[in-house]
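pasting for the record
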Amino acid sequence: MSESLSASVNGDMINGDNINSYEFTEDERYLFDTFGYLVIRNVLTKEEVAEANAVLDKHMHKVEERMDTALRNTKEGTPLSGDGKRGRMDLGGVLEWPGDDSRVFKSILAHPKLVKKFHGLLGKGYRMDHMPFVIAQEKGSEGFSLHGGTVDCSSGEYNPFLAYSCNHGKLHNALLGVSVQFADADSGDGGFIVVPGSHKSNFKMPQSMIDGEEYTEFIRQPVTKAGDVVLFSEGTVHGAAAWNAEHQRRICLYRFSPATNCYGRSYFGSEGRTWPEAMYNDLDEAQRSVLEPPYANRLDRPNIEDDGSVVLTTRNSKKKEFDRKVFGTKYF
């Protein structure tokens, strides 16, 4: 795999002079539209990374390792499958952990270094679509065969629920992957891999490429440091290489979607009404707005503004009153 191409942007100096680093810049728009992903550098401070890793150490005993054949994400004996002895480890519940344990993980929902990027890639009113979870890999553990694509890389069928498009200068991602790095991934370490530009592909991928056996010069492993965040369209073909480093790989994976889009259904919750109740503890107004279910902005949806404040987007009172008379409900 190659790491020489890296669509990356530095997001440092949150309290200082480089306020423009929080914008979704013209450079970023070009890079994402061309390659289908971005690496935003230094989103989390070293102190926040250390805090999150200490929390993960405390909860790692709850990790679930993918050892059963039915749970494997690679074809046995292929370059992405690792040594065959270790599986990928998954850990959920990060937004439900009590008190400060979930603080860093909840900060990603409306992080000041990311909000304008989310607006540029998803639009205002963006929402969390999947339960976020931690992925960990030990040396030798398997990665994940290439998957996804606006045109599915395996079937060649159009994927409307993952699709990327650009219309009238606006980027649209039906589903955006957000991978927060809690360990370094240097050249050759493995972890996240991507096929740059594949969000615009019109044909299925050769199976040997999906399995990492051929055409590896077209597959990139971006070099990332702890605290970086990778933003990628789920319409961009991506996966993970087997982990080769001595230290444990740790990332937390979120997926966000536009206000009216929905892929996952966890927002229904166990009672069919909402996300798990513990997720809402200690959220600020902006973070809470990201947990709204899918519906249009004009129907009283809370929107995070560029300055971090939250406003309610709505229709005029006469129209709302009329709808109530017609339908007998607040919303049509």
